[in-house]
Design goal:
about 500 residues, alpha/beta, 3 domains, six-stranded mixed sheet, 17 helices, about 45% helix
Length: about 500
């Protein structure tokens, strides 16, 4: 094994792992691609080598940051750390190809290509945005406020562009260094100025007239489904709810599958939950399974959230849209039934959930001034997809509730990473986010990404906060598809131009 290549891969992987939440050292990611650019420049480096070493880098990076998936499903972990690195390998392959065509000028395509691959990676039933470079910057709030215009992919583009300029500053001739240095400073100062302006604008003069309480039950995710434990589960949530001192709660939130039974069809259980709603005179949002019946009369479970409103018997619900592959469902099982049978033989606990198909906006009336407020709920995996969350606000939501059960991942970095992802959802849509997790981490996030209040991991706890309603949708909420469409179009044009047989191309090198 070539020592230079190995050290390059190791350095890149260590920087990526070290800059990923829960680490607050995201600033180190601004130099992460420099070792790879050196690797690509070497004459002995081939296209095949670039793909291989890029893939190897991705394996180490994903293993070091997504190891917590193995707590819930080891086959799922293996699939993830072998699938996601393909994108890294493709990126390095294409960058080497462009370098062979255009020389160092090809590195200026890196921000477009990397961002384009992140956009593609988020699409389809295998979509996954967890490893976006944008999330490495969620501790640097004043620098990423422009996400309300570009979304998280703008932050990714910014990070990679600074990497490119850093590389040219280090390797460029002396006369050019000043231009790259000035460019780097400008790319930090402009976001910072916009961030300072945004923080002042969205944290001042807020009418915090919606009172919300969170209950974090901290119940073993495996134990809660045992039939004999259902009563104890209910008692825990009831007791914690009654311990909240705030009497004028507008909304009480319980986490994903807090009630581990089909609440719509279990009248006695539903009656118990309604007793809490009536006693506390509060609207309750709780996670619970539901059931979907198709035209043929066969049914499949849904992972849902139910709103029980005070004084109203009718149930409102939302069902999780983006399910977790090989955890909540088996992809393409109708076309490849043998694969599902194979998983069953391995005794893998894979669910058979149906995906929700509707964007739901709930409404309630506040106690403070009898005003109507609208909100939506995202369930766990839903929250990592910015363009799904954006749809809730387009349809009228004025704040977002995220309910989740990160207890499957134990005391790992998974719950902390999931919390930081919600920070960008708040900034993108300029909305308060109420995050309620079974074992943690529950929190309130304001419109500029500040975590205002937070629980600790693996503790039974409650939180209460007054939040404000969204008044005007952000540019991202209104026009969020513009930036990724531009990125994808330019990516295609770069590949077309590079592939075209143009005379004089050697002059670019």
């Amino acid at each position: 094994m070539n020592k230079f290549y190995f050290l390059t891969v190791l350095a890149t992987s260590v920087i990526l792992i070290g800059g990923t939440p829960p680490s607050p050292l995201g600033i180190i990611v601004f130099i992460v691609f420099i070792p790879l650019f050196y690797l690509i420049e070497r004459e002995k480096t081939t296209l095949k080598n670039c793909f291989y070493w890029g893939f190897f880098t991705g394996v180490i990076w994903n293993s070091g940051t997504l190891y917590w998936i193995a707590w819930a499903t080891f086959p799922g972990f293996l699939g993830t750390v072998l699938y996601l690195p393909l994108y890294f390998g493709v990126f390095c392959f294409v960058q080497k190809w462009l370098f062979d065509k255009w020389g160092k000028a090809g590195f200026f395509a890196a921000p477009i290509l990397w961002t384009g691959l992140e956009i593609i990676q988020a699409k389809g039933i295998f979509g996954f945005t967890w490893q976006s470079l944008a999330y490495t910057q969620t501790f640097n709030l004043r620098f990423i406020q422009f996400a309300d215009v570009t979304g998280m992919y703008g932050v990714t583009f910014w990070v990679v562009l600074i990497n490119v300029l850093m590389y040219f500053f280090i390797t460029g001739i002396k006369k050019q260094k000043i231009y790259f240095a000035v460019s780097i400073v400008v790319l930090f100062v402009i976001p910072l100025l916009y961030g300072i302006y945004s923080v002042r604008k969205f944290t001042s003069n807020q009418d915090r007239d919606v009172n919300v309480s969170i209950v974090q039950g901290n119940i073993d995710p495996y134990k809660k489904w045992i039939p004999s434990f259902v009563d104890s589960n209910y008692v825990i949530y009831r007791q914690l709810s009654f311990e909240i001192e705030e009497k004028d709660k507008d909304l009480l939130v319980w986490p994903e599958t807090a009630m581990p039974f089909y609440i719509r069809f279990r009248y006695n259980r539903l009656k118990q939950v309604r007793e809490i709603v009536d006693s506390l005179n509060v609207n309750l949002l709780t996670g619970a399974p539901d059931y979907y019946w198709d035209n043929k009369g066969s049914g499949r479970p849904l992972n849902s959230a139910f709103l029980l409103k005070r004084g109203i018997n009718k149930l409102s619900s939302y069902s999780k849209i983006h399910l977790v592959p090989f955890s909540e469902f088996v992809p393409f099982k109708d076309k490849f039934p043998f694969f599902e049978n194979f998983l069953k033989k391995l005794n893998l606990d894979v669910g058979d959930f149906a995906a929700g198909d509707s964007i739901v906006v709930f409404s309630l009336v506040t106690k403070k001034n009898d005003s109507k407020v609208k909100f939506s709920t995202a369930i766990c995996f839903d929250s990592i997809f910015p363009y799904l969350i954006r749809k809730f606000f387009i349809n009228g939501a004025q704040f977002l509730v995220i309910i989740t059960n990160d207890g499957w991942f134990g005391r790992t970095s998974g719950p902390y990473q999931h919390q930081r992802i919600a920070v960008l959802r708040a900034i993108e849509n300029r909305s308060w986010i109420v995050r309620c997790a079974n074992t943690g981490i529950s929190c309130f996030i304001d419109p500029v990404g500040n975590i205002v209040k937070s629980t600790k991991l693996n503790e039974a706890a409650t939180l209460t906060e007054n939040i404000s309603k969204l008044k005007t949708n952000s540019f991202f909420t209104k026009h969020g598809l513009i930036f990724p469409e531009i990125i994808l179009i330019i990516s295609v044009l770069i590949l077309i131009v590079a592939a075209a047989p143009i005379k004089g191309r050697e002059e670019l090198k």
